[in-house]
Structure formats: C-alpha cells, structure tokens
Amino acid sequence: MLFNPFDHVNKEDVKKRVARLKKKNPQLGREEICLLILRSKCRWCAAAGAVTALPGVVPVLGTLVAAVGGTALDMVAVGFFLSEMILEMAAVYNRNLDIPGTSREAVWVLASSVGAGIAGRGLTRAAVSQLSGHAFMRLCQQVLLSLGIRAAQRTILRIIPVLGTFIAAAVNYYTCKKVGEFVKNYYARNAYDDLWDGKTIDASAEVMEDE
C-alpha cells in the first residue's frame, strides 16, 4: 500500500502548535524555535521506542511481540513524529502547509535526511515537485522502507529484557536528533521572509548515512 506519511499529519494542529511556541517565546529566533521542536520530538520518539519494546521484559511471548509487533509500531510512530517535526519546522520558516508543494518538499527533506538514495539518482527538490502521483508515492514508500530497514537492523537489541527498552529509546532519540538537525539546517539555509508559495528551486540532496 502506497501512502504519504505527511497526509496523516493534522496541519491545522501543526500551525497552532508553532503559533503557540512563537507567542510563548517571542525572544527566540526561528532556529531556536526549531531546537525546541527538535527536543520535544526527540522525547516523543524515545518514549515510543521504550513503550514498544516493553513487551520484551516478558519471556518468550513478550520477546516475540517486541521483535515483530513492537518494531512495526515503533517504525510507524517514529515516521509520524518525524513528519510532524518537519512540517512544524517548515511552518516556523513560513512555508504554506495548505499547498501540495510544501508536503512534497517535506518528503524530499525527509528522504535526504534518512539517506533514501535520492541524491544518487539525481532527484532534486524541483524534480520531486514534478513527479507524477504514482512516482511520488513510490518515493514516499522508499523513505518509509529506509526507516523500516533501520528499525529491523536493531530488532535484536529490542528483545533484550529491560535493557532493550533503554536501547530502543536511545536509538530513537539519536535517529530523531540526527534527522532533526539536518531538517533544521535545511530550512535555515532555505528560509523565506514571506509566506512560501510552494515553488521549488533546483538543489541537490545531501544524504546522511548512518555512522
């Protein structure tokens, strides 16, 4: 099944949260607001990792649940929180969340940050904005698959009783922080003083590889 994870984020809620952050912290600049968003999402991702690994403390059956169901739920939760984070940072930098171009740019940013391979194929922001509906959804699928592969690679760590819970939380925190730093820097380098209209410019992606 093909779907765009950003379609499942409530954009009105995103705009309200960003507006509240700006109102509550009028002394902070856009990069500092993005840091607040990043810290919050890191905590949510860490919590998701810990909760979905909890069944691992139960011998046999709990281990199976943590390894299979927990990994799947963790991937969905992290994907959702990362999507929210990217749109929130986009809103901080005055992107118009109500137009398709913003979501397409967000997918491009997420794909670049998780190393989904789009740079190797020469896909730029402008190219992504021109992809057909099916091709764009395939790109979304590849991004989610890239996140899923990373989650699967660490499945064995999740099933370690008790310790697996802390490991899962730490891994998710690190993943979110790494993606968030890339996203924050991207929007800071591509800021718009006025409300962005969804048009893109040609630029190559910088793929972040796992260390």
UniProtKB/TrEMBL annotation:
Transmembrane segments: 44-69, 75-94, 156-175
Domain of life: Bacteria
Keyword Transmembrane helix: yes
Keywords: Membrane, Transmembrane, Transmembrane helix
Name assigned to this protein: Hypothetical membrane protein
Organism: Pelotomaculum thermopropionicum (strain DSM 13744 / JCM 10971 / SI)
